[in-house]
Design goal:
310 residues, 12 strands, Oxidized Rhodanese, domain 1, 11 helices, five-stranded parallel beta sheet, alpha/beta
Amino acid sequence: MKKLNKLITLLLLVVMIISVVGCGKKDDSKNSMNLSNSTSVSIEEDINKYFANKPNHNYKIKQDEFIAKVKANEDMIILDIRSDKDYKKGHVKGAINVPWGPAIAENLTKISQDKDVYVYCYSGQTAGQAVMTLNLAGIKAKSVNLGFNFGISKVEGYEDVKEETVNEFGTDTYDVPSEVQTALTNYYNGLADVKDTKFKNYKVSEDNLKAMIDSKEDFYLLSIRSEKDYNEGHIEGANNIPWGAGMETKFSTLPKDKKVVVYCYTGQTAGQTVAALRLLGYDAVSLNGGMGMSANAPLGWLNKGFDVVK
């Protein structure tokens, strides 16, 4: 009888151990799922706020206003995201070189979150992408209108603030949420996947878009120009979600199973939009030079001589 009681006790103990282990595994799985969901929701919420709270300056600064700030020696951070080679040929006084690509994500914690940060590239388009991602990391960034080639270098007196000195970040570091760091690292590392394709830099050239339209390729074309300008003339097949606060509420109408080509006027706000859409899981790219204006010629659809429809 004693042996039977010991056996029953032993069996009960085994059952209890299995139950505890089983419950422990179930709870871990549940916690992991909640963490994943909260991370996704957090980034999506921050992206929505970026557009919903869009300031009047559109996360940009006019090139002449920017040069005036440089001449006045204002306390700010300037990021030159052009190539190292072009940076060393001459750049804006005080600018730090963070070449377009993974280097931007790698240096997030070194970029001040206490000062205004101004970013410039060649035409303003990739700077638009960078500015959106930097703001997501808590950095108060704006892009310089039309970049170095079409904006900064055209400002009278620019030569007075041009230098070849190589500038470096200070020793201060800043906290960036781990989920944001991961998302932006993946974003910039993803540039390698499109490097040798027609969508290099998450952009598409005017000629390649024209070929996509002519061959009736299955993709989604999105104009974020104003409704008025869209009605007066847009690229054939384009849909319209005007740039501005509230546009984020219409992102869910875009397809996630097609390439989404976004265009604006010169490519800069489209760059911001593309960065947001890609972080939300859309396969988005922007049209090089946008619709095109005299200020960024010869870039852009109209500057290439392509037709529009009403």
